[in-house]
Amino acid sequence: MTPELEPQNENAFAKLRQFARKRPAAERCEMCSRELVAEHEHLVEPASHKLICSCGACAILFDGRSGSKFKRVPRSVLFLQDFQMKESQWESLMVPIEMAFFFNSSPHGRVIALYPSPAGPIESLLPLDTWNDITQVNPVLHKMDADVVALLANRVGAARGSRPAEYYLVPIDECYKLVGLIRTHWRGLSGGTEVWRELAEFFGGLKKRAGALREVSNA
Fold first, then answer.
1. CB 197 within 8 A of CB 182
2. Which of 14, 42, 133, 188 has its CB surrounded by the most CB atoms within 10 Å?
3. How many whole angstroms separate alpha carbon 174 and alpha carbon 72?
4. Residue ranges of the chain with pLDDT lower than 70?
5. Where are the domains of the chain?
6. Mind listing the pLDDT tens digit for each residue in 151-169?
7. What is the 3-state secondary structure (H, E, C) of the chain?
């Protein structure tokens, strides 16, 4: 005969069952259904800009393959310390805020400019002449692999006079991660303190990753 549980033990088991029901399901590779770690790889579908969560084994199958439906998103981050952009050039890009990312779209055959908003990414019309001028001064932009690498510009601090503008070459999934942070944490008209704290941590993490990469390269 099974002894009856004391009320306090019964409550404890009830809480454990409730926690187990609420625990989120682990992310899985969308190719093979293998369980993924928190920091996993991504593939991108250039035709739709859709990101696919992937394990390393599946991601490597699409590394450098031309004509494939998906492309493997790289992991390296490059901080462009000597990047040059005039205020007049930024204004001519017609981005209404001080943050945006730019990438070469192979299906469209042109550079696409997107900026984050509380409603998601919004496309801005990009004058080709201005972009060509910026590329000519910053030849590092030729390293932007189509569809998977983007120029990420953070000029918020410069606009406020608190810190210089920052420019990075980043994996495209980091740009959509930034969009997700703003959508999730934005409150009211100015965003609220939480979203700005999240953005500071995001860009701080990018700079740390770029610095670690530079140290390894110089070793």
1. no
2. 42
3. 14
4. 1-25, 212-219
5. 1-73, 74-218
6. 999 999 877 777 899 999 9
7. CCCCCCHHHHHHHHHHHHHHHHCCCCCECCCCCCECCCCCEEEEECCCCEEEEECHHHHHHHCCCCCCCCEECCCCCEECCCCCCCHHHHHHCCCCCCEEEEEEECCCCEEEEEECCCCCCEEECCCHHHHHHHHHHCHHHHHCCCCCEEEEEECHHHHHCCCCCEEEEEEHHHHHHHHHHHHHHCECCCEHHHHHHHHHHHHHHHHHHHHHHHHHHHC
Per-residue burial over 78-89, b if 16 or more Cβ lie within 10 Å, else e, is: bbbeebebeeee
Quote the tokens at residue 218.
Answer: 């110089």
Cα dihedral 175, 178, 179, 180 in deg (nearest 10):
120
pLDDT of amino acid 105: 95
Report the alpha-carbon distance of residue 60 to residue 11 in Å, rounded: 48
First to last CA, the chain: 69
Q: What is the pTM of this model?
A: 0.83
